[in-house]
Amino acid sequence: MSNLHGAAVEDDEPELLRDQFKQLLRYRAVIGAGVGIGLLGGVWFGLSNADTYVATSQVVLRAPVNDPFNPSISQDKTLNVGSERQTALSSSVAEAAAKKLGWTGTIGKLQKDLQVTNPPQSQVLQFSYTADNPQAAADRANAMTQAYLELREKQWTAIRAKMLDGLKNELDEAALKHDKQVKVVDRMPAGAARDAEYGIKTNLANRMIELEGRVSGLKALDMSAGTVIRTATAPGYSDGPSLPMSLGLGALVGVALGLLAAWVRLVFDPSPRSAGDVARAVRAPVLGTLPRGATETLLAGDHNDPRVGEEFRSVAFRLAYDQRFADRRRLLVVAPRGTSEAAAAVATNLAASFAETGKDVLLIEADLRTPSLAGLLRANTTDAPRWSAPAEADDSGWPGRRRLSVDAGESGSFGLVPGERVRNVARALTSPRTSRLIAEADSPNSTVVVLAPPVLAYADALALVDRVDGVLIVCDPRSVHRADLQRIRELIGGAGGTVLGAVMFTPSGRRGAKAAKAAKSGKGAKPGKGAKDPAQPPAQGGAAPAESAAPQGRRGGRGKPARPRQPEEQDEYEPEAGPDPRVWGGENSDTVALRSLRAEDFHAGER
Predict the structure, then answer these.
(1) Which end of the chain, N or C, is more open, meaning fewer C-beta atoms within 10 Å of its C-beta?
(2) CA angle at residue 531 from 530 to 536, to 5 degrees?
(3) Strands laid side by side in the 53-61 sheet
(4) What does the pLDDT look like over 403-460, one tens digit per residue?
(5) Angle at alpha carbon of residue 473, lines to 469 and 478, rounded to 5°
(6) Arithmetic mean of pLDDT, 523-539
(7) Which residues, in sequence order, are bridge partners of residue 131?
(8) Cβ atoms within 10 Å, residue 364
(9) Dihedral of alpha carbons 393, 396, 401, 406, sign
């Protein structure tokens, strides 16, 4: 088992690296800015060094010795190359070179472009001078070299002169003592005392010979500080990199800088970086990732991309096999913050997907603040359902006495309870009539999908959690923070509900950027086109929506906008003509859908 686990970890590593690289590519603007800065730096570097010339001279250092061919005398012990390099860079050398060149500027400016290096394992100093003129670079390099050699020779000569003065004084003193001792020895008779004085005379004579030899040796020394082995000449080409090379180097540095900035941005980004981050924040799986712009159309059948419908069917399929949802068949669809447009699209398409498998689906628009589904969907008025009969006094006004049937094209049809503006939203959501409406999911082969306002904007969704405990979160990863998702999970869990999963989507164009900005600022966006003229507060007992906007989408969006209904027309709902609803998987369908059966479904016809 350990080997299998190790192999699985090794297989996951390329996937993790690939995922991290994809996350970095989310910040294309940051990477592009880094590349732009690198290119600008490359252009500046290439232009500033285009007319740069470097002339080089080399000097082999030596110390004054009596026998330069004696192998026992080591130049390494005599010379300190580091000290010699500092001497070459000193202001004394620069002042001497300035006199040779007739330099009129400052000594510091002359020293600025000089570089003195020592090749490894050698007694060589290399003088490199940089200038904007090749001949000037060569002249200044040679002047610096000669000034250094002359300075060192002057210093060595001064040291030798001091040593010669000292030796000459010692020699004169020894000679004076020797002359005195000669006179003493000449006056003394032969004997032991004379022999002792004669020995002193001999020692003084030997000392004089030694001093004379040292003086002769110092006078014979070659006091040159080194030998020029390379004279600087005017270079024939610029030393700086070419403009194309500078641009290439700048681009490479810019890419590295951009990736580094993107990585730092990724580390400190509070938004979920991947589906795994969303799943960890809500502690539930990500049931689906919708294609870009999939939530901008309420029904997948009106969308140009066939992948949208398949993705919604996949989400519905995964929910159907979740035992927590299959037992109660109640689903609450909510968004974190901002608007409910994306959540409305997901709820509508999930209702159509459930209806496609033969379920009796009821979509409840529990958004009583900006209701809009009735005007955006192709709906017909149906018979009054069971929950419409008032069992007790309830003046909330919602849900009303009418139930709408939504044509979902080839997917079939499903019921819709449209939202309405009410005076007291909390009382309407917690009324017994709403409880009986949601309880329709207890009927065999029934499914209830409830659409609620954003959780972090209003507490409406939390008021419904005790009856619709299975919650589906619809979020745009770019416009929500991980902390927001964790807070939603805590709020739903505290209210007694369970997060079944999350659906991620990505808006397209400016609409997505505005939605992300509005969601991150914590302010809800204005109602969409369908909610521009929301319904008026209903009369007591419940009434139909005051206005119905033109149907959106590919099929219903070609006609003119519907005129506002008059008060006397509110009791009659006239939907736009559309194709007859057909159950998905029926006789005229091109696709066979899966349908899950339970034991009570076999006895549904007997009841």
Answers:
(1) N
(2) 125
(3) 114-117, 124-131, 53-61, 226-230
(4) 788 888 888 888 888 888 888 888 888 888 888 888 888 888 889 999 999 998 888 8
(5) 160
(6) 37
(7) 53
(8) 27
(9) negative
Cβ atoms within 10 Å of 460's Cβ, excluding its own = 20
The whole-angstrom separation of Cα 474 and Cα 484 is 13
Return all residues near 586 (Cβ < 8 A) that are at least 6 apart.
none
CA 343 to CA 115: how far, in whole Å? 69
Residue 597 makes CB contacts below 8 A (sequence gap 6+) with none
Rounded mean pLDDT of the chain? 76
Contact 114, 129 (CB under 8 A): yes
Q: How far apart are the first and last CA of the chain?
A: 53
Query: Which strands sit side by side in the sheet containing 413-417, from one edge to the other?
Result: 286-289, 498-504, 470-475, 330-334, 446-451, 360-365, 413-417, 403-407, 379-382
Q: How far does CA 590 lie from the centroid of its chain? A: 46
> Cis peptide before 399, with omega less than 30 degrees from 0?
yes
Distance CA 488, CA 486 (A): 5
Measured between alpha carbons, how far is residue 257 from residues 21, 33, 46 in Å?
15, 9, 19
| 414 vs 360: CA distance, rounded Å | 7
- Per-residue tokens: 16: 């993790």
- DSSP E strands in 278-378: the ranges are 286-289, 330-334, 360-365
Encode pLDDT of 334-348 as tens digits: 999 888 889 999 999
pLDDT tens-place string over residues 246-289: 778 888 888 888 888 888 877 777 778 778 888 888 999 999 99
Alpha-helix runs per DSSP H in 221-295 = 243-267, 275-282
Query: By the 8 A CB rule, do 605 and 446 touch?
Result: no
